[in-house]
């Protein structure tokens, strides 16, 4: 933690001084002090909060829907073999295909703007969450199932008292990875076509060649990404202690 | 207990895909959906017959492929050695770990507009995005690979008077290979994504460029052919590395 | 030294009525599908066994002799390919309230506390009319884990985890306790301690117990009867009645008789007592 702060401070210091000493062109890499300025200006004018709100709302809807659908689909596929076999080819395709390439089609379907961004966000994270849920259910230790059966567990008992609790760690890992992908969906969706949001502001200032304002928005996204991932990692650590692991 | 054979699995999966294609084909014919929005498998196939023989297609594919190849090669060439180094030397790792983790948690495509400002709308900016996309997972997993090496293996090597270099080449390197390859697998898909999205964002040529172009012209069939092409490439590349990975794991166990 | 081994033929062929024995195994064959459709593996081949109520029976044999399969078939967790298992004269078709299993890998739910793990079986068997938590707590105390009620399994040593496994099985008050190499993954000293404690608990109400192990000393120390198994195919090769006085202590293991049993079983496991197959022996 301390080393992290030291390390970031060092990077900022080098960055600032390289520009001040005239070794690098601030037009290209800007400088930390200017970025801090830009951020505080955006915060005071309300622009920052507005963009943050738009992006976070898109994120919440897209990610929220993918959590519900992903866990449900993954659980069904884990429970019923036939569902797994039906879903499997599509899941694998969506998992390894560069999904953002479908962006223009979403624009055709939903029009430019918020709905398309939400659709991309949803699609990017839902595959990860479904795949992890499926794997979590499949990798439940058969010894635990056998023990439950020895006490006369019904299929319902097996599902509620063994399978679901046992797959919680894998599901949460999926939720964590899904956050990264959903964030990517929001930002890229906004890069391509939006009227507000963090991704939009990067694209907007990029087109105006305003490096400082552009990097300021990137910094906000970095902070957001780190915060979200840290939060889920903390949740994960709570379950990690009894994690049985795959296989 | 009857264990369903893999034949059954393949059968069910194949039927599912065929049903999907069937509905996709029939729904527009039956007037249930507008083919402008969904196209049809037959139209996508017809589009492929037009697109593939054209010289434009070859040009686009070669541009995209070389952007990917160069960016990804740089990512491997840079990420693997640095990852191994960071894994081996804790001091370096403590210093660089926080920024690396911050970048890992960030959607790397957010950097796209910055690369365009820095490097222009030509191939360089795409190579840069592919590089950044690929290098982080490669670096992180190579590092994890080295850290996963059992201390006892190193101790065993030392007991036979191995020098630092021997330890590195004969123990650390082979033992961390699975981690490295896993990083490469994750890196492949991120690099492919990087190239395509960068081309879609601003470019002069490439498959991603065409995807955006056909999208704005409502040529859904042409668009889908290109999307499928990219998907198949991503899928195949990932699958190939995964196959290599499984081979390594079975060899290691 | 005089030999104490006396052959008493035809004891096993004793066709006493099924009702007389608590557990009766008739011509039991257990088979597994080999992976990739490479045929079937015969784990247990036409085994016969009678276990009287209230006896402590151990099954000993080399790995791969089907001793666990035999136990799991009695538990109703493995469907036999041939023959049948009777408990109280009734054929076994699946797990039942009259039997509880203690597993080698403990099989504790990692997300449940010690107390909730002991409750687990009670919940599944839909116990009612009694506070389940209070009952679970009594059994946690019985196995000496008072104070650890709210620990999770990963915070306990292997020996303590298996105490939870034993408490979980005892809590549902089964007539028959089935233990599948319960101390197999514990170190030698813990194993001896656990064995003594298990016996002490068993002495209190003498439930019928079937205990699978690959440890010869453990098998003798605990047992009224020892079932010796051989492999290829897995089969019962000998049944030995142990006449060591109870209650037994660690010193029992130093007695001359104990050593005699040990010598005999070892020879038997090494296949040097060919003529004794499927015969009951008495010392």
Task: Please name the fourth-level CATH homologous superfamily of the largest domain in chain B.
Answer: MetI-like
Q: What is the tally of beta strands of chain C?
A: 12
- How many domains make up the coordinates of chain B? 2
Q: Which residues of chain B sit in consecutive blocks of at least 5 with pLDDT less than 50?
A: none
Order of neighbouring strands in the sheet with most strands of chain C: 1-12-11-10-4-9-8-7
Can you describe what's shown?
The complex is a heterotrimer of chains A (247), B (253) and C (283). Chain A has 247 residues and is mostly helical. Chain A has a single domain, classed as MetI-like (MetI-like fold, Orthogonal Bundle), CATH 1.10.3720. Chain A has 11 helices and no strands. Chain B folds into 2 domains: 36 residues; 214 residues, MetI-like fold, CATH 1.10.3720. The longest helix of chain B has 38 residues. In chain C, the strands form 2 sheets. An 8-stranded mixed sheet of chain C has the order 1-12-11-10-4-9-8-7, sandwiched between helices. In chain C, helix 2 crosses helix 3. Chains in contact: A-B, A-C. Chains A and B meet through helix 1, helix 5, helix 6, helix 9 and helix 10 of A and helix 1, helix 5, helix 6, helix 9 and helix 10 of B.
């Amino acid at each position: 933690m301390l080393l992290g702060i030291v390390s970031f401070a060092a990077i900022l210091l080098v960055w600032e001084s390289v520009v001040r000493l005239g070794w690098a062109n601030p037009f290209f890499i800007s400088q930390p002090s200017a970025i801090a300025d830009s951020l505080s200006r955006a915060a005071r004018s309300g622009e920052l909060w507005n963009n943050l709100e738009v992006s976070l709302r898109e994120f919440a809807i897209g990610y929220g829907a993918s959590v519900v659908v992903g866990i449900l689909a993954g659980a069904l596929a884990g429970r019923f073999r036939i569902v797994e076999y039906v879903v499997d080819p599509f899941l694998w395709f969506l998992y390894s295909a560069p999904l953002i390439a479908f962006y223009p089609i979403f624009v055709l379907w939903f029009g430019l703007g918020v709905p398309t961004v939400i659709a991309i966000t949803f699609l990017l994270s839902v595959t990860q969450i479904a795949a992890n849920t499926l794997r979590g259910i499949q990798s439940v230790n058969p010894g635990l199932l056998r023990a439950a059966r020895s006490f006369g567990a019904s299929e319902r008992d097996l599902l509620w008292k063994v399978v679901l609790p046992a797959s919680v760690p894998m599901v949460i890992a999926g939720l964590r990875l899904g956050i990264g992908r959903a964030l990517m969906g929001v930002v890229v969706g906004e890069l391509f076509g939006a009227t507000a949001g963090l991704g939009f502001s990067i694209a907007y200032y990029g087109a105006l060649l305003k490096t400082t304002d552009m990097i300021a928005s990137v910094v906000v996204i970095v902070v957001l990404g780190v915060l979200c991932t840290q939060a889920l990692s903390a949740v994960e650590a709570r379950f990690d202690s009894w994690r049985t692991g795959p296989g | 207990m009857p264990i369903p054979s893999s034949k059954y699995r393949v059968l069910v999966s194949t039927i599912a895909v065929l049903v999907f294609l069937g509905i996709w084909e029939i729904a527009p014919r039956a007037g249930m959906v507008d083919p402008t929005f969904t196209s049809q498998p037959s139209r996508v196939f017809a589009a492929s017959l037009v697109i593939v023989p054209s010289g434009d297609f070859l040009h686009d594919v070669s541009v995209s492929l070389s952007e990917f190849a160069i960016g990804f090669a740089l990512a491997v060439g840079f990420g693997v050695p640095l990852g191994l180094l960071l894994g081996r030397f804790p001091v370096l790792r403590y210093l660089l770990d926080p920024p690396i983790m911050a970048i890992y948690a960030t959607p790397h495509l957010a950097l796209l507009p910055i690369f365009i400002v820095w490097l222009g709308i030509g191939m360089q900016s795409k190579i840069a995005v592919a590089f950044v996309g690929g290098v982080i997972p490669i670096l992180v997993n190579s590092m994890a690979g080295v850290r996963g090496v059992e201390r006892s293996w190193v101790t065993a090597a030392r007991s036979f008077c191995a020098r630092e270099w021997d330890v590195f080449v004969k123990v650390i390197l082979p033992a961390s290979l699975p981690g490295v390859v896993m990083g490469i697998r994750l890196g492949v898909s991120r690099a492919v994504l990087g190239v395509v999205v960068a081309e879609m964002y601003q470019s002069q040529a490439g498959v991603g460029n065409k995807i955006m172009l056909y999208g704005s012209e409502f040529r859904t069939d042409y668009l889908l052919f290109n999307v499928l092409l990219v998907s198949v490439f991503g899928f195949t590349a990932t699958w190939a590395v995964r196959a290599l990975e499984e081979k390594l794991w079975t060899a290691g166990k | 030294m005089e030999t104490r081994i006396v052959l008493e033929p035809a004891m096993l062929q004793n066709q006493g009525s099924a009702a007389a024995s608590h557990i009766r195994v008739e011509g039991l064959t257990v088979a597994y599908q080999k992976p990739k459709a490479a045929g079937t593996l015969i784990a247990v081949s036409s085994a016969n066994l009678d276990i009287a109520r209230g006896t402590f029976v151990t099954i000993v044999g080399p790995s791969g002799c089907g001793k666990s399969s035999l136990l799991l078939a009695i538990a109703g967790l493995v469907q036999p390919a041939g023959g049948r298992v009777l408990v109280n004269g009734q054929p076994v078709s699946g797990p039942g309230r009259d039997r509880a299993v203690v597993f080698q890998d403990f099989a504790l739910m990692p997300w449940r506390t010690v107390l909730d793990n002991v409750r687990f079986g009670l919940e599944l068997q839909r116990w009612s009319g009694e506070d389940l938590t209070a009952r679970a707590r009594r059994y946690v105390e019985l196995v000496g884990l008072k104070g650890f009620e709210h620990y999770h399994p990963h915070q306990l040593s292997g020996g303590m985890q298996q105490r939870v496994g034993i408490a979980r099985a005892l809590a549902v008050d089964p007539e028959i306790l089935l233990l599948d190499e319960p101390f197999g993954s514990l170190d030698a000293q813990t194993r001896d301690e656990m064995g003594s404690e298990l016996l002490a608990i068993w002495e209190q109400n003498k439930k019928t117990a079937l205990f699978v192990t690959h440890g010869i000393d453990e098998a003798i120390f605990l047992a009224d009867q020892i079932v010796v198994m051989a492999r290829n195919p897995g089969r019962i090769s000998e049944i030995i009645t142990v006449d060591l006085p109870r209650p037994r202590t660690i010193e029992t293991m130093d007695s001359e008789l104990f050593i005699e049993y040990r010598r005999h079983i070892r020879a038997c496991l090494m296949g040097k007592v060919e003529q004794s197959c499927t015969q009951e022996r008495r010392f």
